[in-house]
Amino acid sequence: MKRGSNQSGFTLVExxxxxxxxxxILSALLLLMHSVISVREFQEEGAGTEALRDxxxxxxGQIRHLAAVGSNECELVTTAxxxxxxxxxxxxxxxxxxxxxxxxxxxxxxxxxxxxxxGSTATTNVVLAGVADFTVRSxxxxxxxxxxxxxxxxxxxxxxxxxxxxxxxxxxxxxxxxVRSRLERR
Length: 186
What we know:
The protein is 28% helix and 34% strand. The chain is of the alpha+beta class. The chain has a domain at 48-172.
């Protein structure tokens, strides 16, 4: 078709073609935005799981350095939401110090750590917030138990966040654990 010299504007074909190009560009932007949001959510979920694993590894490392000093206050004690034990911890200038540890799930969903080196005052830290479940079980006399005193063969620590992320760590404690009762330099 020929346009008259005094007519201006777009033809129907040009308008439809421009609309199709706009739809394709907007669709591509929407897909890109969706993938960026998905990656970010995945990274946030992974960060929570990573924090759980870091805390469990710290507990496991402390449990592997268990110490028995002959008093009831230093025995490994597990309840459904509390873990208490004594371990040798590297302190000031590389000297190992006997330290009493207690991990407890508070009512507000925080995991609290209390550490008290022998001869010093206790320090209390919230090591993780948003905890939905903190379960400690110990393996003694051939069975898993949620409460118990004395040396277990294994300890299982389970942590779950409010976001439904859950990790479980089992720490094996050799029966021939060497009980150290003196200060040593690492």
